[in-house]
Amino acid sequence: MAEKWGRRAILLVYAIMIVIPLLVVLFGGFKNIGQLYSSPLGPPVPPTGRNFTSLVTTANIGVPILNSTALTAGTLVITLFFGSLAAYGLARIKGWIGWVIWAALVLGMTVPAQTSLVPLYVTFRSLGLTDNLFGLILVETVHAIPVAVFILGGFMRALPRELYEASSIDGAGPWRTYRSVIMPLSAPSLAATAIFLFVIVWNDLLYPLFFTTSPSVQTLPLALLAFQGEFLTNYPAIFAGVTVASLPVVVAYIFLQRYFVAGMTAGATKG
Questions:
Q1: Sign (positive/negative) of CA torsion 239, 245, 251, 257?
Q2: 54 in a structural domain
């Protein structure tokens, strides 16, 4: 009984740690600066929509939203395609060779992204791929593919090898097996990977900050920096921007929630 109540207490503390910052952001987006500092946890009385209006009039938030949408969509499409191909290929390699290649990809995830920023920037600048969305999509894709291979590879390795053998007996080649057998079965894992990468790419600030300079190429997280000054930071406007930026992630998770849960548990339930 004590252990049961102990777990509940830990979960309650964790929930409070999540809910309080969330309420500060949600309420803060509808407050002015005076209301925020006088009552950061209280509801906005009266609420104001001026912060959301300033996102359009001051920050011209429409262009960054379109850029973030294009960046995220392009990265997800390329990453899921090549990541699923790589995971499928590694799942079909028998013996220790496949495990070594898979471990090398996973090992690359442990290297901090900051260590490769300067070489990447020099390379992309020499190729004329800085300060444009295509180059930014390539940068995000390079760092997202190992994550996709890690998640999808764990699922595809758990699939019975008889599936591959049966498709070969039926006359299907590797490409037909990948397209008609593996990909339909991998739908939950693909959805889980897509949501996970969507959150990472949509909220990423490091690469857009480092690889872009023109306002026309700004992404949404980068545009929110415009509300931060040297002596004064407009936190209500930032909170409004964070609320707007979080809506696509929340909507995507609501519609793909059952696929996300199934995809994260699929590898553990298959023999």
A1: negative
A2: no
How far is the C-alpha of 195 from the C-alpha of 261, rounded, in Å?
11
Distance set, CA 204 to CA 144, 147, 155, 188 (Å): 12, 15, 26, 24
**What is the pTM for the complete model shown?**
0.81
Residue 252 lies in a domain: yes
Asked whether the predicted pLDDT for residue 136 surpasses 90, the reply is: yes
Instruction: Tell me how far CA of residue 176 lies from CA of 93, 167, 181, 184, in angstroms.
Output: 17, 9, 8, 12
Q: Are both 41 and 123 inside the same structural domain? A: no
Is 66 in the same domain as 31? no
Domain of residue 24 covers 1-48
From 147, 181, 20, 153, select the one nearest 88 (Cα to Cα): 153
Say which range, 12-26, 35-49, 120-134, has the weakest mean pLDDT. 35-49
Report how far residue 218's alpha carbon sits from residue 213's, in angstroms, rounded to the nearest whole number.
8
